[in-house]
Design goal:
The protein has 143 residues and is mostly helical. The chain has helices at residues 2-15, 57-78, 85-115, 119-141; strands at 22-26, 32-35, 45-47.
């Protein structure tokens, strides 16, 4: 029985928070020092630390779940098929950029063809123009 009492007292002693006094002083060269023992024959300050802040793990888990749910809601709202005006507008803007890119490429190829090339180079430019024009028609005009 005495060993159980001794063990429980030891457990209580270990469970108590450890506190130590902290001293701060500045030496003759201007360096700041911290120690758990006060310096001999030198002016010093005792530092008091605030108690540590702990957040229960269950609160962290609840907060993580809330963040996960919020992100899922935003993802659903911004999905192109969500019916949300912003998501549809964003999809429309991306499509406009793509179509403008096709137009620029077609204009550049047309300008190169006007400048004149040999038959081989001209034929490859016309083939590029044909493929790009088909893509532009399919994705921008017919849709």
């Amino acid at each position: 029985m005495p060993w159980k009492l001794a063990a429980s007292l030891l457990m209580v002693a270990l469970a108590l928070p450890a506190t130590a006094e902290i001293y701060r002083w500045t030496d003759a060269r201007g360096a700041i020092h911290f120690s758990d023992t006060p310096p001999p024959r030198q002016e010093h300050d005792q530092v008091t630390l605030p108690p540590p802040v702990t957040v229960p793990m269950s609160e962290n888990i609840r907060q993580a779940d809330k963040v996960r749910q919020s992100r899922a809601q935003v993802s659903r709202l911004l999905a192109p098929d969500s019916g949300d005006r912003y998501a549809q507008s964003r999809e429309h803007q991306e499509k406009l950029k793509l179509c403008q890119g096709y137009r620029k490429q077609l204009d550049r190829i047309q300008g190169q063809l006007r400048a004149g090339y040999s038959n081989d180079r001209g034929n490859s430019l016309r083939q590029k123009r044909r493929k790009l024009s088909q893509r532009y028609s399919r994705e921008c005009v017919l849709d």
